[in-house]
């Protein structure tokens, strides 16, 4: 077999895989195709749900993930994954759709990204066009769902009752969004850029899932149009073949199966702006909070991720040896300034120890931390972890509340038993 034949076979296999994934994605919607597994461990992460235990399920290109719901697919990463590596494996990365009418097959040869609106030259770009437009760039960035940890809000709020696994950190590769906008020629007076994917509403009365960025942000160095995730094609359920990456911003802006970019000369208003003007909004104050049960007098769109940290090496109820060296490990991250320090308390917040930070993969990435410590006495103990960003933001020790269950970044705690 010639080298050309081998390359053709590789391409055909890749294309056929995408068709298979498409068929499998369609089959997911049928109960007979979904393999629900009896969980070998507690997947609740301390969240009690009216619907009962959260089973592990298997979807195409994914390992066993926690099922939040099936139509559309919503899968949470088991928290122990975050103790394996600061880079979240593709097959363990969480999945979040808003609209049930998502694509079941995408042909990379016929796929086109349309760019229009307030531009000089509308475009219809193939994947080959995008990959040859400019030198590809790479960024390691956290994609975190706006409602990550919503299940811990008290009192409870409407929405998917998530633990802490609706987040992941990956190495994204693609081209800057501004390269495409520059090619189309943004006209004077442009104010926003709107983004739409191939997933669509089932009913006409349902708003389409579209997001927008202010023009200055869209033309900055941050947003990326990515086709690669951790050195491979982006998994189908995470947005193949092209995904909008907005480093430092919550995942609601990371549009999957990106198909349309529209430059606007006004505010993004109207029916298709629901997820900017109505959904994913926070109280417009410094704490992004109100008293439980109240409605905020004014709101603003959710945007940057606040500073946050977790302990990943121990879980609630673990038995800890007394007066013996134990290495605690975890992760910290924020919305783009980077982590300056992580502190850990093993005595319920009375005293704090400075952890050692791991490799810096960039300001948008998880940052590993480690601390070797000893628990001096037996009995119940509560471990606290808090991070401080380079811009001086530190996690609050008291929880705040908002009606959407968004933006949680309180100091996290883990209760253990020392013996």
Describe the structure.
This protein has helices at 3-28, 127-133, 177-184, 215-218, 274-277; strands at residues 35-37, 56-58, 64-69, 74-76, 95-96, 113-117, 123-125, 137-144, 167-176, 192-197, 210-214, 224-229, 232-233, 243-245, 258-264, 281-283, 299-301, 308-311, 319-320, 326-333, 339-345, 353-354, 356-357, 367-373, 379-389, 412-418. It is mostly beta strands and 419 residues long. It has a five-stranded antiparallel β-sheet with strand order 1-2-3-4-5, with no helix packed on it. The longest helix is centred in the first third of the chain and has 26 residues, at 3-28. The radius of gyration is 22 Å and the shape is globular. It starts with a helix and ends with a strand.
Indicate the topology:
Blueprint: H1 3-28, E1 35-37, E2 56-58, E3 64-69, E4 74-76, E5 95-96, E6 113-117, E7 123-125, H2 127-133, E8 137-144, E9 167-176, H3 177-184, E10 192-197, E11 210-214, H4 215-218, E12 224-229, E13 232-233, E14 243-245, E15 258-264, H5 274-277, E16 281-283, E17 299-301, E18 308-311, E19 319-320, E20 326-333, E21 339-345, E22 353-354, E23 356-357, E24 367-373, E25 379-389, E26 412-418
Parallel strand pairs: 6-15, 19-26
Antiparallel strand pairs: 1-2, 2-3, 3-4, 4-5, 6-7, 8-9, 9-12, 10-11, 10-15, 12-13, 12-14, 16-17, 18-20, 20-24, 21-22, 21-25, 23-24, 25-26
């Amino acid at each position: 077999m010639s080298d050309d034949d081998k390359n053709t076979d590789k391409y055909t296999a890749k294309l056929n895989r995408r068709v298979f994934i498409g068929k499998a994605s369609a089959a997911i919607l049928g109960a007979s195709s979904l393999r629900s597994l009896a969980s070998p461990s507690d997947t609740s992460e301390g969240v009690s749900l009216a619907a009962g235990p959260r089973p592990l399920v298997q979807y195409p290109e994914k390992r066993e993930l926690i099922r939040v719901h099936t139509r559309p697919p919503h899968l949470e990463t088991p928290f122990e994954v975050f103790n394996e590596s600061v880079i979240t494996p593709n097959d363990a990365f969480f999945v979040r759709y808003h609209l049930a009418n998502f694509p079941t097959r995408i042909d990379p040869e016929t796929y086109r990204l349309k760019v229009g609106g307030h531009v000089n030259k509308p475009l219809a770009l193939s994947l080959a066009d995008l990959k040859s437009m400019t030198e590809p760039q790479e960024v390691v960035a956290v994609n975190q769902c706006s409602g990550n940890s919503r299940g811990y809000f008290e009192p409870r709020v409407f929405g998917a009752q998530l633990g802490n696994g609706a987040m992941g950190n990956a190495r994204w590769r693609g081209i800057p969004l501004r390269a495409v906008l520059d090619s189309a020629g943004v006209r004077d007076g442009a104010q926003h850029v709107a983004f739409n994917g191939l997933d669509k509403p089932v009913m006409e009365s349902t708003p389409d899932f579209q997001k927008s960025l202010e023009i200055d942000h869209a033309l900055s160095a941050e947003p990326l149009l990515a086709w690669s995730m951790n050195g491979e094609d982006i998994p189908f359920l995470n947005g193949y073949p092209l995904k909008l990456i907005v480093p430092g911003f919550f995942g609601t802006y990371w549009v999957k199966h990106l198909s349309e970019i529209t430059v606007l000369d006004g505010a993004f208003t109207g029916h298709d702006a629901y997820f900017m003007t109505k959904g994913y909004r926070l109280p417009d104050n410094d704490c992004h909070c109100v008293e439980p049960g109240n409605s905020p007098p004014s709101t603003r769109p959710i945007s940057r991720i606040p500073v946050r940290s977790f302990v990943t090496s121990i879980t609630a109820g673990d038995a800890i040896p007394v007066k013996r060296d134990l290495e605690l490990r975890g992760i910290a991250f924020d919305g783009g300034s980077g982590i300056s320090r992580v502190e850990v308390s093993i005595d319920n917040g009375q005293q704090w120890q400075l952890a050692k930070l791991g490799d810096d993969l960039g300001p948008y990435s998880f940052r590993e931390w480690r601390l070797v410590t000893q628990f001096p006495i037996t009995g119940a103990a509560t471990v606290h972890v808090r991070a401080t960003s380079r811009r001086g933001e530190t996690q609050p020790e008291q929880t705040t509340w908002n009606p959407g269950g968004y933006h949680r970044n309180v100091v996290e705690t883990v209760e253990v038993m020392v013996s």
